[in-house]
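Tokens as discussed.
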């Protein structure tokens, strides 16, 4: 049996972690793009399955796991970036659930100004 070198294992873990980080940002970016297209009708966005609320809750759970995994692996991980984006997903879900188009537009505007949101999603 071949032994995996600690450095190679650490590098593989970092790559996987960065992939998950990018995936979470991608989910937020796609939600932003979809929300912008249908921002005229929060009621239409309420029909999404999974709902925006379910997506935000799933991202919160995934982020908690990421923070724990980073701690166990000794990674220098600044959780504040994803925390902020995930909170904006929750804010978006709140606005959609309440049918508050004005609040939804505020969240869209905030997300539009954030780094890490790919230009093709804006």
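Sequence:
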């Amino acid at each position: 049996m071949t032994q995996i070198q600690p450095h190679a294992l650490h590098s593989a873990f970092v790559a996987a972690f960065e992939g998950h980080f990018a995936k979470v940002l991608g989910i937020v970016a796609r939600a932003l793009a979809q929300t912008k297209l249908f921002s005229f009708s929060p009621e239409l966005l309420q029909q999404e399955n999974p709902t925006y609320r379910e997506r935000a809750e799933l991202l919160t759970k995934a982020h908690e796991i990421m923070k724990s995994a980073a701690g166990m692996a000794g990674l220098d991980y600044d959780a504040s970036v994803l925390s902020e984006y995930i909170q904006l997903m929750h804010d978006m879900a709140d606005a959609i659930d309440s049918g508050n188009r004005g609040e939804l537009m505020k969240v869209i505007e905030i997300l539009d100004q954030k780094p890490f949101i790919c230009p093709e999603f804006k």
